[in-house]
Design brief:
heterodimer, A: mainly alpha, three-stranded mixed β-sheet, two-stranded antiparallel sheet, globular
Chain lengths: 439, 426
């Protein structure tokens, strides 16, 4: 076929996806600047001047279990909070005056969040004299709570990059958690439990794939219905089997932490990253695998092509439907692993609705992380941190007592602000949620 | 080329849609066709059938004697089948008795005992219908309201607070409390609408997060003096004044209250709004094709906010019916899962008010029967959730039901078909 032999372009059928990098608008620039300024002022006034003078903020960086430790960091609480607030104010001033580029803005945002959190912690420690926050423990807890979110988000990314919306992460997690606990008990082997949990997650993924791809059901609707289905099914089987016969069906052990040689001996980072259980290590590997796979392999290129423009991908000979099936079912494996982590990775036994919305937070992490593995990792860690912080704050006596319910709201409010304030429109893969019908 | 107008139907994405409609036919042929091709009603009935069969399998698996018989299945299979059959029939029998009529009560019981199952069924259907209308209305404008749970909670908080903290004359107190509940739900829905319109934040995410925020807000309030009931030990609110409660319809012994009238009126109101008013036309236009609606001069953003406020108000009414009618004090589980069941109700009702009422009654019957089933035969009530989700799953995929029952392929009658096939960017 010669180059001149072009098909006439039908203006109705060809969808034009314009990718134009618009410079940050003046209104948006000022808006962001004002938000930063408010955050900075809040840090200075509430956390700096609002805290009691003369108190020290002590951040514990040591772990009892570790051989080598870092000394605690002791900072004057009030001055530190004011300085951190001032730094945010400087950033706000620059944003209002000159404006950061989009790329820079991401870093500015990260610094701002960091300053806000640290200033808040400084303030929180001025409630009673001599309070120490176990900072290492806080970060350990962050990874502990973020692991299922990271895995769930990776599953979501794999699905959505190939053009299938995955709202059913929650249901896949539940299936994985239930089956993981059941299989680990019956086979009295944690390895079997983990594999069974992954398979259960991928079976839910296969249901999603068949209904979304073969029967062209609206994918958001489908995801919600599958979540209800998984909740009902696991709840029913829990009441019918596990509750009355806990010993025979719901008594798995759980993966204990395993310290890695050498790496585990690094002060601070050793106990933080390399003294965890198998599933956490698997998570590290999966993060790298999905990132590299998506952006540096043929599979990744095909997946992204199918998610962005399936017709074009089909034209060059990529099997769109098969790519989607493979991705959705493989994503189910990862979501099932996230579920298995909830039971045999942490506490052992299954209980009703054990995922309690973690799948939805993972979904929010996908969106907040702009459908990128590393972005979602950051988002998941942020939500995990908000969750871990809540536990720490309920122990530390803050100067003004914060009701525990408000602390529990923290991760959800953070998600709300993140999705509303920072993500904006049109970031998803172009064909995400649009069924592909050949013809 | 003609200018795109909002009334243009969306281009058919399903090739089955392209089958030309045959000319007028007699009633007989139409009824026959309905069965052969599987119209909406037939598909619904078949989906219900399949879901009940799958539910039966679950009951059999969960039944202890059946499981024991399975151990010697190959030497004496009949035992397994007979025990499974007795477990399934007694469980579903108890479900029907709890949902519709107990034949035992018919011969010996009082009027109250005879009508109690129906009263419970309709009582359960009130919040289901209202939440279903809330979800369905948002559907028609192209939005997916998963936040009915939070909106119900806010509605219940507002209505309940007015109900127990204020003291007003008889009818006025009820009306003010209802208005407060509507406002509470509307605020919570409106937040998601404003976020969608102003920042583009997807309503699925924001409404889910608002659900959790509402849950914890309620948990906080249930520990606050003035809201919590003395002596401040249980997480339960003060009791709503009798002046602010919805009157019972079938005497004080049966729990059915005037909430059903509100629910039916709301269904009529939503039907009128969608099919007869300019606002409804705009909402549907925005739902069918936002770009075309914008070209035609409608404000998509304004309509997003409006529909979420209305959807929130309807869910708020569901909260009112719970707190002012069914259970006159707020507890942590005041939403009772009705928010999420509202989604399945709206899907089963295909987003239309009439269908939503029928779907609400069906699921209300399943809930009422499920309670009886659990107490009579020990079959966990979660079975009802499985059946509900399966019904909706099968209904969402009519080709699947057709292939199971070997019906001929015909005009698509699915939920969430072309009008909803869009992703995060939409």
């Amino acid at each position: 076929m010669s180059v001149t032999d072009k098909q006439p372009v039908d203006p109705e059928s060809s969808t034009v996806h314009e990718v134009v990098e618009v410079p940050v608008s003046r209104r948006r620039r000022i808006g962001t600047g004002i938000v930063l300024a408010v955050v900075g002022l809040f840090c200075v006034l509430a956390f700096g001047l609002g805290s009691h003078a003369g108190y020290d903020a002590t951040f514990g960086l040591s772990s009892l279990a570790a051989a080598h430790n870092l000394p605690d960091v002791v900072l004057p609480a009030r001055v530190t909070a004011i300085l951190l607030g001032a730094l945010v104010l400087v950033l706000a001033g620059w944003q209002l005056g000159r404006g950061f580029s989009r790329r820079q803005l991401r870093w500015v945002l990260g610094v701002t969040i960091f300053c806000f959190v640290m200033a808040f912690l400084c303030w929180a420690m001025t409630g009673t004299k001599g309070t120490t926050i176990d900072f290492l423990g806080l970060l350990q807890n962050t990874i502990f709570t973020a692991t299922p979110l990271i895995l769930g988000a990776l599953a979501g990314i794999m699905c959505e990059r190939s053009g299938v919306i995955n709202v059913a992460i929650e249901g896949q997690m539940l299936a994985g958690a239930f089956t993981g606990a059941l299989a680990a008990t019956v086979a009295s082997s944690l390895g079997v439990g983990m594999v069974a949990g992954m398979v259960a997650g991928s079976l839910m993924g296969a249901l999603l794939a068949v209904f979304a791809i073969r029967y062209v059901v609206n994918q958001v609707v489908l995801g919600v219905v599958l979540n209800v289905f998984a909740l009902g099914l696991t709840g029913f089987l829990y009441d019918a089997l596990m509750q009355p016969h806990a010993d025979t069906f719901n008594n798995p052990n759980f993966f204990g932490p395993k310290q890695l040689p050498l790496l585990g001996d690094i002060p601070f980072f050793g106990p933080l990253l390399f003294d965890a259980n198998v599933i956490v290590y698997l998570t590290y590997i999966l993060i790298i695998a999905v990132h590299v796979g998506l952006f540096h392999t043929r599979w990744g290129l095909r997946t992204r092509a199918v998610g962005e423009h399936p017709r074009a991908a089909d034209t060059v000979g990529i099997n769109v439907l098969r790519t989607r099936y493979v991705n959705v079912i493989a994503a189910g494996l990862i979501a099932g692993l996230a579920g298995a982590y909830l039971t045999i990775g942490t506490i052992g036994a299954f209980s009703k609705n054990i995922s309690s919305g973690k799948g939805f937070i993972a979904l929010a992490a996908v969106i907040f992380g702009r459908w990128r593995p590393l972005g979602a990792l950051g988002a998941a860690l942020l939500f995990g941190f908000a969750d871990a912080l809540q536990t720490v704050l309920s122990i530390v006596g803050t100067p003004v007592s914060i009701p525990s319910s408000f602390l529990a709201m923290l991760p959800y409010l953070a998600t709300l602000f993140a999705v509303a304030g920072l993500v904006g429109r049109g970031q998803a893969p172009a064909a995400d949620g649009v069924p592909y019908v050949k013809g | 080329m003609s200018t795109p107008t909002a009334t243009d139907p969306p281009p058919p994405t399903d090739p089955e849609d392209a089958v030309p409609q045959p000319p007028a036919r007699s009633w007989g042929t139409r009824a026959l066709d309905a069965v052969r091709y599987g119209n909406a009603v037939v598909v619904t009935v078949l989906a219900l059938l399949v879901a009940v069969v799958v539910g039966g399998l679950l009951i059999a698996v969960a039944d202890e004697p059946t499981r024991q018989a399975m151990h010697y299945f190959f030497s004496y299979p009949w035992d397994t089948f007979s025990r499974a059959w007795s477990a399934v029939s007694s469980a579903y029998g108890a479900l029907l008795k709890g949902a519709i009529l107990d034949p035992h009560a018919l011969s010996s019981g009082s009027l109250t005992e005879i009508f109690n199952p129906l009263s419970e069924t309709v009582l359960n259907s009130i919040p289901l219908i209202l939440a279903g209308l809330s979800v369905g209305l948002a559907f028609r404008a192209g939005l997916f309201n998963i936040g009915a749970q939070g909106q119900i909670i806010l509605g219940a908080i507002f209505a309940g607070y007015v109900g127990f903290a204020w003291h007003l004359p008889v009818v006025i107190h009820l009306l003010v409390a209802l208005a407060a509940g509507i406002i509470g739900g509307a605020i919570w829905g409106g937040v998601a609408g404003v976020l969608k319109a102003k920042t583009g934040a997807h309503e699925v995410i924001t409404t889910i997060m608002l659900n959790y925020v509402a849950v914890y807000l309620l948990a906080y309030l249930l520990g606050v003096k003035g809201f919590q009931r003395p002596p401040y030990q249980q997480a339960i609110s003060r009791v709503v004044d009798t002046n602010a409660t919805l009157p019972h319809l079938l005497g004080s012994d049966l729990r059915l209250h005037a909430g059903i009238i509100i629910a039916l009126a709301a269904a009529v109101g939503v039907g009128w709004l969608l099919d007869r008013s300019t606002t409804g036309f705009q909402l549907r236009a925005v739902g069918a094709n936002p770009s075309a609606a914008r070209t035609a001069g409608m404000s998509v953003e304004r309509n997003y906010i409006l529909v979420m406020v209305l959807a929130g108000a309807l869910a708020g009414l569901a909260g009112c019916s719970q707190i002012l009618g069914t259970n006159p004090a707020i507890t942590a589980d005041i939403d009772g899962g009705f928010g999420f069941d509202g989604i399945t109700v709206a899907l089963l009702g295909r987003g239309r008010p009439g269908g939503t009422v029928l779907a609400g009654l069906l699921f209300g019957a399943l809930r009422a029967g499920g309670v009886a089933m659990q107490s009579d035969t020990g079959t966990p009530i979660d079975l009802v959730v499985v059946i509900q989700s399966l019904i909706v799953l099968f209904i969402a995929a009519p080709p699947l039901i057709r292939s199971i029952f070997r019906l001929k392929a015909a005009r698509g009658a699915g939920v969430g078909g072309s009008q909803l096939a869009k992703g995060w960017n939409g």
